[in-house]
Design brief:
The chain is mainly beta and 79 residues long. 0% of the residues lie in helices and 65% in strands.
Length: 79
């Protein structure tokens, strides 16, 4: 991926988190087959995160997500 990916949140599994007014946990995440390499902003550990998309009507959102630890997710968006 060519853009710059920015950390948006570190959340607990299932915690409400909205992107463009859509709670990401309310949708099936479709894996795009792409991934990014990031560092946890708090501890600096490197992670390879998959890039997903969710779609509702004419809204499509892409984001990267992965577990930093058990049930603790890092969410990134391309800027």
């Amino acid at each position: 991926m060519s853009g710059i990916w920015k950390h948006k949140a570190t959340i607990i599994d299932g915690q409400t988190f909205k992107l463009k007014e859509l709670n990401i946990w309310d949708f099936q995440w479709e894996n795009t087959g792409n991934s990014i390499q990031v560092k946890d902003p708090k501890y600096g550990q490197s992670y390879k995160l998959s890039i997903y998309k969710i779609v509702k009507e004419n809204i499509e959102i892409q984001f990267a997500a992965g577990e930093f630890s058990n049930c603790v997710w890092g969410i990134y968006m391309e800027s």
